[in-house]
Amino acid sequence: EIEFMYKPGNVSRAPPVVTPHQPRLDWQMWFAALGHHSSSPWFTAFVYRLLQGKEDVIRLVQVDESQYPFSAQPPVYIRAHLYKYWFTGSAEGSEGPVPWWRRQRVQEFFPTVSLGDPALESLLGQHGLKDKTPLKRPADAILPRLLQALRQLVRPFSGPAVLWALYLVAATICLLRAMGRRPRGAAPPARHKGPRRGEPAERGGGERNGQVRKKDAKEAEEKGEGRVRGATDGHSDSLRGAKKKK
C-alpha cells in the first residue's frame, strides 16, 4: 500500500499538522473519492506517471524516498480502493497501542492497470492525456533555471516546513526593521505622571499654584471690602438725610 504524506492511510499513524500548508494532491484525492474516477481525469494521469516512475510525481506522494515502497523500481500494477475513515475512541482497539483510525472498505475506485494496458490507454486517450512532445524552452531562459534551482534547494523539506521557515524569516525582518527605526542610545520618551496621593506636587508647579491661589484670595478680599464700604457709605448717607429732616 502506498502511503501519502498527509491524507489518512495507515490506521496507526497520527494525523500530521500541516497548517498553513494546503496539500494539493491529498486534498484533490478527497474530492475525487466523492464521485467516479472518470469525473477526475487527473487521477488517471497520476496513476500513469506512477507506473512510469516519474520522480516529480513521486515527490508529491512522499518527500522521503525511503517511505515510498517503489523508490527502487516502479510498480508493475496499480489499483485504487475507496475506504471510509473514522477516529477511534479511547476504549477501542485491543491490548497495546490504540490506533488513531478505523476504516472500512467501500468499493474499488480505480481498476488494476499496468503500462500498455488497453483500459489505461483508452482512458488516457479519452481525456487527452497521451504523452505529447514537450515544449522547447530557450537555452538562455533565466526564470526556468531559477525555479529549478529553488526546487532543488527545498527538495529535502516538506511543504509545512518551507512555509513556516518563510513566515519566520518575514517576521524576523519586520522585527529588525522596527528596531532599526529607533535611534541608538536614545532614551524612551518621558511620560508625564501626576503626583500620587500623599505626595507633594512638583516645586515649580506648587509655587505657581500657590501664587494663583493667593491672587484669587486677594481679589476676593478686595471685592468683599468694596461691598462692605459701599454698604457703610450708604448707611451713613441715610443717617445724614434723617438728621436734616429733623
UniProtKB/TrEMBL annotation:
Start-end of Basic residues biased regions: 182-195
GO cellular component: endoplasmic reticulum membrane
The UniProt record lists the keyword Phosphoprotein: no
Domain Lipase maturation factor 1/2 C-terminal: start-end pairs: 1-111
Disordered, as annotated region: 182-246
Compositionally biased residues, Basic and acidic residues: 196-206, 213-240
Keyword flag Membrane: yes
Transmembrane segments: 157-176
Alphabetical list of InterPro entries matching this protein: LMF, LMF1/2_C
Coiled-coil intervals: none
Keywords, alphabetical: Glycoprotein, Membrane, Transmembrane, Transmembrane helix
PANTHER family with a match to the protein in the record: LIPASE MATURATION FACTOR, LIPASE MATURATION FACTOR 2
GO terms for biological process, alphabetical: protein maturation
The protein's name: Lipase maturation factor 2
